[in-house]
Design brief:
By secondary structure, this protein is α/β, with parallel strands linked by helices. The chain contains 15 helices and ten strands. The chain has a six-stranded mixed β-sheet with strand order 1-2-10-7-8-9, sandwiched between helices. β4 (103-109), α5 (115-123) and β5 form a beta-alpha-beta unit. The longest helix has 15 residues, at 191-205. The radius of gyration is 20 Å and the shape is globular. The structure holds pyridoxal-5'-phosphate. The site of pyridoxal-5'-phosphate (PLP) has 18 residues, from α9. The site of pyridoxal-5'-phosphate has 18 residues, from α9.
């Protein structure tokens, strides 16, 4: 059967009616890839799976929330949407707005979003405004605009975003046939960890799973307000998608970690880059740097003897590596140049 997108796939768990016009790019249905080579390399005796959200239509999990946010905006008669973004929300809002025939306005921190993401918002014809400020400041501005003008906010403060994003948890359970013991993910604005926890609880209450995972979120050390217990004015990390100093879903994320007996912790940029390389080199999965924060956290916890033998562990890889190809080029070995001769080729290949 043709995959219908997350709203049709999980309609009974989502706030839609027969009157809701469904705006979908057939997001969701993303791979849950068993990753034994990565587990072995880090010496973890666990059953490890990577949920590759880079396989969504615009290359990040943001599409799960955007399909619902845009569908509901359309149902309400909205002609335009607005968001602040570290990149992926703007790419997704622009694409879904184009598909719906709506206008998208996006505010981004000048010079702080990757070219891949910026190019997406541009080609989908969003109106893009770069501000001399960071994501948190951009979010304050768009919140006020949405309160005073006829435009719908599609940041994760929009409750439909998290409702859509919770389908990531449904898919994990459907793909495994059970809930994992631990679920790791990166934490930026803290919406996704909140959404996954809602999804697991919905499935548990519906009798679809008989246990709940521990929710384990990782922030970047230079952008770790939740871990440090205070707003970070100038968050810094190479993982631009989680460069956020005052997360919108701060309290909900703390609640998800506490209720599930999980935790929210942090990893350094070096740890993120190490994990990013391992995911690509050992499992063939190209994610963006921020996406590797969950795996970096898994590696960190594993060193403390955190896991029991045979634990089922899922890490969400939030976005596609091609969005920030520049970064991977800066840390990769350059290709060697050779003349076209067979002798040189054989020598270069080491045969
Ligand atoms: C948005 C995003 C995050 C952070 O998710 P939050 O819900 O804001 O915590 C992480 N990685 C990528 C690639 C993202 O686009």
């Amino acid at each position: 059967m043709k995959w219908p997108g997350i709203i049709e796939a999980y309609r009974e768990f989502l706030p839609v009616t027969d009157d809701t016009p469904i705006v979908t790019l057939e997001e969701g249905g993303t791979p849950l890839i068993r990753s034994p080579r990565l587990a072995a390399e880090i010496g973890a005796d666990i059953d490890l799976y990577l949920k590759f959200e880079g396989a969504n239509p615009t290359g990040s999990f943001k599409d799960r929330g955007m399909t619902l946010a845009i569908s509901k905006a359309k149902e309400d008669g909205a002609k335009a949407v607005i968001c602040a973004s570290t990149g992926n929300t703007s790419a997704s809002a622009a694409a879904y707005s184009a598909h719906a025939g709506m206008e998208a306005y996006v505010l981004i921190p000048e010079g702080k979003i990757t070219l891949g993401k910026l190019s997406q918002a541009m080609i989908h014809k969003a109106t893009i405004l770069q501000i001399d400020g960071n994501f948190d400041e951009a979010l304050c501005l768009v919140k006020e605009i949405a309160e005073n003008y006829p435009v719908t906010l599609v940041n994760s403060l929009n409750p439909y975003r998290l409702q859509g994003q919770k389908t990531g948890a449904f898919e994990v359970c459907d793909q495994l046939d059970y809930a994992p013991d631990h679920h790791f993910l990166p934490v930026g604005n803290a919406g996704n960890i909140t959404a996954y926890w809602m999804g697991y609880k919905d499935y548990y209450n519906a009798g679809k799973i008989d246990s709940l995972p521990k929710m384990i979120g990782f922030q970047a050390a230079g952008a770790a307000p939740i871990v440090r217990g205070k707003i970070i004015k100038n968050p810094k990390t190479i993982a631009t998608a989680i460069r956020i100093g005052n997360p919108a879903s701060w309290k909900q994320a703390e609640a998800a970690a506490a209720e599930s007996q999980g935790r929210i912790d942090m990893v350094t940029d070096d740890e993120i880059v190490t994990a990013y390389r391992m995911i690509a080199g050992l499992e063939g999965i190209y994610c963006e740097p921020a996406s590797a924060a969950g795996v970096a956290g898994l590696i960190k916890l594993n060193k403390t003897g955190y896991f029991k033998s045979g634990d089922k562990v899922v890490c969400t890889l939030t976005g596609h590596g091609l969005k920030d190809a520049d970064f991977s080029l800066t840390i990769s070995e350059k290709p060697a140049s050779i003349s076209g001769s067979m002798d040189e080729l054989v020598k270069a290949l080491g045969f």
